[in-house]
Amino acid sequence: MKKLIFLKFAKDTTVFFLLMCLTIGLIVWTLQAVNYFDFVTQDGHGLKTYFSYILLNFPKIIHRIIPFIFFISLFYIITEYENRNEMLIFWTYGVSKINFANKVVFLSLALTFLQIWIGGFFSPLSQYKAREYLKNSNIDFFTSLIKEGKFINVVEGLTIFINEKNENGTYSNIFLDDSSKSNSRMIYSKNGVLLDNDRQKVFRLYDGRILDKEKKKINSFKFDEIDFNLAEYSTNTILNPKIQELPSKELLGCAYKIINNQIIPYNDLFLCEKNILNDILQELFKRFYKPLYLPLIAILCCFLIVLPKNNIKYEKNKKIIFFITFLVLILSEASLRYSTVSNLATIFYLIIPWISFFLIYSLFYFRIKNV
After folding, report:
1. How would you classify the pairing of strands 201-214 and 150-155?
2. Domain that holds residue 187
3. CA–CA gap between residue 116 and residue 111 (Å, rounded)
4. 308 in helix, strand or coil?
5. pLDDT of 357 higher than 60
6. What is the mean predicted confidence (pLDDT) over 326-351?
7. β-strand 150-155 against 171-178: which pairing, if any?
8. Residue 14 shares a structural domain with residue 84
9. Which of 84, 103, 175, 352 lies in the 20 to 30 Å Cα band around 300?
10. What does the pLDDT average to over 267-271?
């Protein structure tokens, strides 16, 4: 019977946790998706690229919100069990409060390993795939960004200005500033048309002049018709993967070589240098160490069972527990930012969750023995 009531509690907590993850995750994901729409409106990517990118960033959101959702889920389920007198079932069948707390901590450990897997492997992989998708995409939304009287610089090294867009789809008085190569080139054309399809992406320009500047030499010549190729230009979107998008294996290898003063071989993913060691260590702590705060959150929520709901101090106790646990969540985020400031700060960051857990667990044991 004890196993059945624990399974019901674990099931209720898990179901509520998953529903909250999905709901809050979709809300955060939607808000981020609005911000990422710049890929279309400013950087010239198509809607397919946009939706693929934001979908691949969803695991990152889930990884970040897991501690908060776990706290809300555990706090809500224990409170609801107490309000419906279902906690009495545990005590009636001989389940001690310390045994209940141990089971909750065990549940948090299972979630800890899940968060480590998501943050250490699955989330970086999906973010890296998203960045690769951007890198391999083209500016397939370029045509809709061209507006008369507006400077267009959605691709690196190229600025386009069009004075007028005609009703037949052609353009008049076109200026192009091409600084993508070692030399600088400026093009003026009286008329032009954009050929944007699967076979080609070119600006066909008519009746104009080209100014080429190479070092101190300037060449100028006229043309009747030329094709300005747009396919060779890359978008202004950041294409190199960020640290949080890199595989954990690469980050661990880089950190190990820097700390041990070993020769660092060339890496085509990122530049492994000593000046990014702190950023790498912070990212590794976030992936593999910050989830250890989950058992601390679990034991704090267990203080909800110390007093029954008919106790005059129950409501005050509940508010205090909520406030303290929320502060722990803030501490876990804030301390990460300063974890690599110095060796002392790193040691302090590493021992905080362990010392805090054993102190609070001891306090919980003392409270239930003296209630």
Report:
1. unpaired
2. 145-229
3. 9
4. coil
5. yes
6. 90
7. unpaired
8. yes
9. 84
10. 69
Q: DSSP code of 313?
A: T
Domain end, chosen from 202, 229, 256, is at 229
Could you tell me if residue 261 is left (phi over 0), alpha (psi between -120 and 50 degrees) or otherwise beta?
left
Per-residue tokens: 63: 């990884």
Domains in the chain, number: 2
Q: What is the mean pLDDT of residues 248-275?
A: 79
Q: How far is CA 122 from CA 20, 56, 61, 112, 244, in A?
A: 20, 10, 12, 14, 12
- Nearest 10 degrees: CA dihedral of 45, 50, 54, 57? -40
* 150 three-state secondary structure: strand
19, 77: one domain: yes
- Per the model's pLDDT, the better-predicted residue between 133 and 284 turns out to be 284
pLDDT, one tens digit per residue, over 77-118 is: 999 999 988 888 888 888 889 999 999 999 999 999 999 999
Say how many C-beta atoms besides its own lie within 10 A of residue 94's C-beta: 9
* Measured distance CA(326)–CA(174) in Å, rounded: 58
Q: Is 338 helix (H, G, I), strand (E, B) or coil?
A: coil
Could you tell me if 225 and 149 lie in one domain? yes
Closest C-alpha to 115, from 64, 50, 182: 64
Q: Buried b vs exposed e over 20-38: b needs ≥16 C-beta within 10 Å? A: bbeebbeebbeeebeebee
Q: Is residue 23 one of the residues assigned to a domain?
A: yes
CA–CA gap between residue 186 and residue 166 (Å, rounded) = 23
Give 133's Cβ-side CA count (13 Å radius). Answer: 21
**Residue 236 token pair:** 């202004």
Q: Is the full-model pTM beyond 0.85?
A: no
d(CA 184, CA 89): 80
Please tell me the distance from the alpha carbon of residue 297 to that of residue 115, in angstroms, as a whole number: 14
Return the H-helix or E-strand segment holding 55.
helix 47-56
Q: In terms of Cα–Cα distance, which of 189, 183, 197 is closest to 230? A: 197
d(CA 194, CA 160): 12
The pLDDT value recorded for residue 236 is 46
